[in-house]
Amino acid sequence: MAPPTPLDASPHLLEFLKTLHSQSLTQEATVDWYSLPDQRSDAFDDLMRDKFIALDQDKCELVYHILRSINAKTVVEAGTSFGVSTIYLALAVAENTKRNASATARGRVIATEKEPSKASEALKNWERAGVEIEGIIDLRIGDLRETLTRDLGVVDFLLLDIWAPLALPALKLVQPCLRPGAVIMADNTVKAADKYEELFAYVDAPGSLFRRVTLPYEGGLDMIIYQ
Ligand SMILES: C[S@@+](CC[C@H](N)C(=O)[O-])C[C@H]1O[C@@H](n2cnc3c(N)ncnc32)[C@H](O)[C@@H]1O
């Protein structure tokens, strides 16, 4: 018996995603993770400028299924890089909105990346991904502290796949647009727990409208529900 397909996508796209994840992992194996410059420094940006650092495939698949189950139509991604995770987000949103007749009701993924060279690679990858995600992604090139200040609509899901010190600023920008029941996912929350202290303090504060659980994925993956 054939194994179940993890997502509703064509064999071409599944194969392409596999290739992208494999390229990302090959690159990551060349990085010395124990002697990285500070995440807020130019040296860190220089080192990461040609790196995918894509969200792991199993995490991308989980995110896809969460989007399908909450029927997400508007998604924000903080940290797009070469656009690998964005393809999963766009596939889910496209599937959730495929019965909508008008193009404007099709839902969207607002993706943001500050490095123009990475954004341009993302555009090429989405072109190669093809019609299954066509017309869904709204790419905003620039610093998220500027790009996420406008026109978000009502947001169902926020992916925080960003350098950890930027996770809280991104959440605070999107928070006024979150619908009750919206889901936020943040990556690497166990491995980089010390860098997420401000985010955790904010969402775990007494009276907070957020509820947070850490999922046992590689490096930790936090799922935060907005009530
Ligand atoms: C972990 S990578 C994102 C990987 C991507 N989600 C994927 O799975 O393919 C984080 C990205 O955030 C970008 N980034 C860092 N600071 C940013 C900022 N202030 N505004 C927008 N993007 C930023 C980095 O350039 C990097 O490409």
What's this model, at a glance?
With 227 residues, the protein is of the alpha/beta class. The chain has eight helices and seven strands. Helices cover 37% and strands 19% of the residues.
Radius of gyration: 17 Å
Figure out the total of helices.
8
Helix/strand/pairing class, anyone?
alpha/beta
Helix-strand topology string: HHHEHEHEHEHEHEE
CATH topology-level fold name: Rossmann fold
Can you tell me the overall shape? globular
- Percent range for β-strand residues: 15-25%
CATH class: Alpha Beta
**Helical content (DSSP H or I, runs of 4+):** 25-40%
Which blocks of ≥5 consecutive residues have pLDDT under 50?
none
Biggest beta sheet summary: 7 strands, mixed
Number of folding domains? 1
Using DSSP, what is the number of strands? 7
Mean pLDDT: 94
Ions, cofactors and other ligands present here are:
S-adenosylmethionine
Whole-Å distance between the termini?
41 Å
The name of the CATH architecture is: 3-Layer(aba) Sandwich
Describe this structure in words.
A seven-stranded mixed β-sheet has the order 3-2-1-4-5-7-6, with helices on both faces. It has one domain: Vaccinia Virus protein VP39 (Rossmann fold). It has helices at 11-28, 42-48, 57-69, 84-96, 116-129, 144-147, 167-174, 197-204, and strands at 74-78, 108-113, 137-141, 155-160, 178-187, 210-215, 221-226. The chain is globular, with a radius of gyration of 17 Å. With 227 residues, the chain is of the alpha/beta class. The mean pLDDT is 94. Bound molecules: S-adenosylmethionine.
